[in-house]
Amino acid sequence: MQSSDVNLYLVGFMGTGKTTIGRIVAHRLGFALLDSDHEIERKQGKSIPQIFATDGEAAFRAMEKEFVDGGHQRKRTVVACGGGLVVQPGNLEVLRESGVVICLHASLDTILRRTQGNRNRPLLDVDDPMERIRTLYAIREPIYNQAGTVILTDGRPMLDIVQHVLRAYRREASEFARSAAAKAKHGR
Ligand SMILES: Nc1ncnc2c1ncn2[C@@H]1O[C@H](COP(=O)(O)OP(=O)(O)OP(=O)(O)O)[C@@H](O)[C@H]1O
Ligand SMILES: O=C(O)C1=C[C@@H](O)[C@@H](O)[C@H](O)C1
Ligand SMILES: [Mg+2]
């Protein structure tokens, strides 16, 4: 695989900007954009809150797994992942084998501000969303921190974040392509 074809996976907590930044980065790279949440909604014909309410979170996590394992293109695609996608065992390993993984980070206050007043994240549609953010973040933080290069987004203009993502992606895509070529040569 050429380094210019390697997929980019954006991971991180809700509200860190994966969908928003992913759209701009995909445009800059001339890549397709896939958003795991939107793909699942399209396939199910239901919104995420409806899926959580009628099928339950475990069913949603199985849909995410299906997306990761077989439901997406492996070339020239930016994938904006749902916030909890890499938390499930096994998913991060598949993403790492399929391309470059970059994690967007924001402080808890920023996350609250960016997600407030929006009811399409069922896990935060509770009386005390900050308490829920704190609890979920404490569980997930170690996973996000080892998922890939972390890009800080607090108080940064979108285009500044886009530049940082592109720089990290280009560097890591070359390494990914080199390592994929070496594995292919040695039959592994
Ligand atoms: N760097 C930024 N500065 C200001 N606002 C931002 C920034 N990044 C994202 N936002 C805003 O925050 C909100 C949430 O962003 P977005 O939907 O991209 O997050 P996400 O990481 O995809 O969340 P989820 O995991 O729930 O899908 C949007 O309204 C977006 O415009
Ligand atoms: O962090 C999470 O667990 C979630 C994030 C969103 O992107 C959606 O995938 C859903 O609301 C769950
Ligand atoms: Mg998103």
Automatic annotation (TrEMBL):
Binding site residues for ATP: 15-20, 121, 156
Where is Mg(2+) bound in this sequence? 19
Tell where it localizes: Cytoplasm
| Location (main, coarse) | cytoplasm
Q: In which pathway does it act?
A: Metabolic intermediate biosynthesis; chorismate biosynthesis; chorismate from D-erythrose 4-phosphate and phosphoenolpyruvate: step 5/7
UniProt keywords (A-Z) are: Amino-acid biosynthesis, Aromatic amino acid biosynthesis, ATP-binding, Cytoplasm, Kinase, Magnesium, Metal-binding, Nucleotide-binding, Transferase
Q: How is the cofactor bound?
A: Binds 1 Mg(2+) ion per subunit.
The entry's family comment says: Belongs to the shikimate kinase family.
Listed name of the protein? Shikimate kinase
Organism, as annotated = Rariglobus hedericola
Could you read off the lineage of the organism from its UniProt record?
Answer: Bacteria, Pseudomonadati, Verrucomicrobiota, Opitutia, Opitutales
Underlying gene: aroK
